[in-house]
Amino acid sequence: MVIGWREKESRSLRVTSFFTKRGVWDVDHHCGLSLIATAGVDHQVLLWNPYVTSEPVCVLSGHTGPVTAVHFTQAKQQLLSYSKDKVLCLWDVSSQLCVHRLADVFPKTQEDTHTLLFLHEERQHLLLSFNSLLLLLETVKEERISSHEHPVTCVLYNSLFRQVVSGDSASSVICWLAGTGQKVKQFHRCHGNAEISTIALDGTQTRLFTAGTDGEVKVWDFNGRCLHRMNAGLGRAVDISQVLLLKRSILVMGWERMLTVFRLHSFSQPFVEPSEWKGGVQHRGDVLCAAFQPPQTLVTGSYDGEIIIWNSSTERALKRLRPHAEHEDYKKPQDNCTAITRLFFIPGRTSVTAATGGADLVSCGGSGVVQLWNTQYSRLVGQFTAHNGDLGSIVMTGSPCGKYLVTADREGTIKTWDIKDYCLKPDEGAREELPKLLHTFRPHLNHVTHLETCTHGDRLLLLSSSSDCSVALSYLPGETVGLFGQDHWCLERPGPLQPQREPERDHSDHGGRENTRLEGKRSPAALGESNTDPGHDSAAEEGGVRIKDEDSRRKAEVDTREP
Question: What CATH architecture is 2-140?
């Protein structure tokens, strides 16, 4: 692709060349952002800086077919893309996330169509052409209060404070009361302008770890004070997918084939450097996730679908798990269809279960597939397709009792499975029949980014976060209680749950803005606008972040028990 333009007060024509592997079907330019978007045959949308042509600024992955059309919304930092499999995606450019996905509404034609996009921004009309056919989509406004103002990337439960903690792509962390849904406090700009990709708690539940795309992991107390800065990316911006806390070390992973480890004895200084992982590089793809089983069993999953079992004390690799382990000369996959995105050991299934050949480890990832493994004999015991593989990778979690497996996809659909007796006894081959599906529900409008189960009082709950800017609380096996920031509830009240409306008060902290949706579909809040301070991240550098307390009048009712 070649672009030529004449700079100001210059008679010469400047020419820039961009090279892609498989070609480009469409291109668009955003004047304000100075970005060029290209629609790729390789299912990806690439964003380019016209002055830096060696590589794209970022890659937007989410389509499952060749992308045929792209179009920026000039008034917002958003991008529309349309693929050959008749899927329209709306992207938030600042967070690089798909905030809305529309399918099954476009005309089905026998002939090969070439689709063009035309957006009338003032009227909020989108016109799509399908050869001789024209389709008009209209956006309508609706009032909706979201949990966050930006896509939510992670959520967890703090059992000490009985609070839900969520982080978003605008580097904000919000604490909520699990029992009522009330917002307690908010930490702004934890990593400056960098996205928070994942969060974790230490064993005491008094320290919060936030990982940013700036390559740092920060350690906070719940007064909003930054205690340590961990240099995971060695000064580089990297994608951190998980932070796992062990007894004497902290593992950080997501962007390379080797684990990054921090020893606890190194935390005597505010700025902490990583140590060497004794096991070295064992994976052939980037390590994306890990799980730990006491006393010393560590498992890690990588982008190429391989799982490695380690001794966490010696940091030595012991075994490898692959669906087709006999093919040692395998080729590296070209997409994420085999990527392992989540791992967990099934609670209650001890070494005795593994010794008899039953499954004790669960993995999931690309193509919507869940796999159950026996770590004792390094074999695949069972697998099933939990969600439509065309939707891409899924996320999952398990209940503390070991009965429920919960999975979620990129359309916001959550499924609860009964795995209490699933794959307890080995068969000759890998079992492929589905476990019992208990419930299917859709508390979110878009991509579910994280799932977490917890016990609050005597109730088993599910927390879910989404790129639609919401955090949902549900009962297991599946009944949505409400969305944080939108509803208030009372979990302690006996009898059937009747969500109570939030009393009249100022919502300026997280915005009761007008949002747009495509006709016939609900959609998350419009993005591209930030309410954070545009200036320097002085609060983070000084070891603290600004904290907002929700409704100080009710402070006596909020049991934060902060250290």
Answer: 7 Propeller (2.130)
